[in-house]
Amino acid sequence: VHGDSSSNQMAAAVKTIAVLGATGAQGGGVVKAILADTTGHWRVRAVTRKVDSDKAKALAAQGVEVVAGDLDNVASLEAAFEGAYGVFAVTNFWEVFSVDREIEQAGNIATAAAAKGVKHVVWSTLEDTRQVHPVGTGAIPALGDGKYNVPHFDGKGEANARFAGVPTTLLYTSFYMENFVNFGMVRKDESGNVALTLPLGGVKLPLVAVHDIGKMALAIFERPELIGQSVGVSGDHLTGGEIAAAISAVIHKPVAFNDVPHAVYASFGFPGADDLANMFHFQTLYNDVFCARRTVAASRALVPDVKSMTTWAGENTAVFAGLL
């Protein structure tokens, strides 16, 4: 009888974290962090719109509970959050290209979490740049019918208010190191010359390996005293030249850095180029404040092994070699 009682108590002590976007970059990192955790305190519930996708099936094959959940449907989120202690909440602007819809999705998450008595939400967010830079002023052109500076930032920042009354920690993320390999930001020309082109305006860019966002989220769930607080995550703050040097060191070729003007970057014409150009412009103008919200020292205090650009690049040598 005592053995059964003890087992039941141990089982009750295990807390479930429902992870939204579990087959995506950030959510996938949270799933990975929980699976790697050895404390036995946590179990993961992967929430995804497509439970029959290859990525969802791969999670199920690892023993992960996979459930359906649609950010546009509160009832589906309530079902997905049933019995969960925590929720990792993330939305993907680049999937919907709509600030209004992203804010509505965040509201749906908050509504469902409140309805199910979730004890701790970690909301992956970014700055509402309009709080420090009024739209249409200075050199940053207004976007989204004149309502936004940086739509994919401003919407998340505005959505923070949707979590009022819900026990939430705001997690401010940084530029993914993975962007350098996933989005062709480092290119080789016909002559074999390699270059990184970004409009950094001479300032440092906070960077993070996407799986370290997952580690940070788990560290936050382990610390209920962070409810109501804001936490930033980054593994490095580097200039464009320093980023290029880190990549050069692993591919054993020179990598030039082209610090193009923001307006030139906006003219490149790929989906979201104007949004990203404004993001970099905002970071150029307000770099001290932007970097201070996501310091490496504060990140290491919670995740001691958060990766530097050099460490991450070294672990991805083969990836870079395949691209360049």
Secondary structural class: alpha/beta
Question: What would you call the shape?
Answer: globular
Biggest pleated-sheet summary: 7 strands, parallel
Calculate the mean pLDDT score and round it.
95
Question: How many runs of DSSP E, i.e. beta strands?
Answer: 13
Number of helices: 16
Low-confidence stretches: none
Helix content: 40-55%
The N- to C-terminal Cα distance equals: 63 Å
Subunit organisation of the chains: single chain
Rg computed from alpha carbons, rounded to a whole number of angstroms: 20 Å
Give a short overview:
Helices cover 44% and strands 18% of the residues.
Question: Which helices and strands, and how do they pair?
Answer:
Elements: H1 2-13, E1 15-20, H2 25-36, E2 42-48, H3 54-61, E3 65-68, H4 74-81, E4 86-89, H5 93-96, H6 99-115, E5 120-125, H7 151-159, E6 168-172, E7 175-176, H8 179-182, E8 186-188, E9 194-198, E10 205-208, H9 210-221, E11 230-232, E12 236-238, H10 240-251, E13 255-259, H11 262-266, H12 273-285, H13 287-292, H14 296-302, H15 309-315, H16 317-323
Parallel strand pairs: 1-2, 1-4, 2-3, 4-5, 5-6, 6-11, 7-10, 9-13
Antiparallel strand pairs: 8-9, 10-12
Question: If you had to describe this structure to a student in words, what would you say it looks like?
Answer:
The protein is α/β, with parallel strands linked by helices. The mean pLDDT is 95. Strand 5 (120-125), helix 7 (151-159) and strand 6 form a beta-alpha-beta unit. Helices cover 44% and strands 18% of the residues. Helix 2 crosses helix 9, helix 4 (74-81) packs across helix 6 (99-115) and helix 6 runs parallel beside helix 7. The longest helix has 17 residues, at 99-115. It contains 16 helices and 13 strands. The chain has a seven-stranded parallel beta sheet, sandwiched between helices. The protein has a three-stranded mixed beta sheet with strand order 7-10-12.
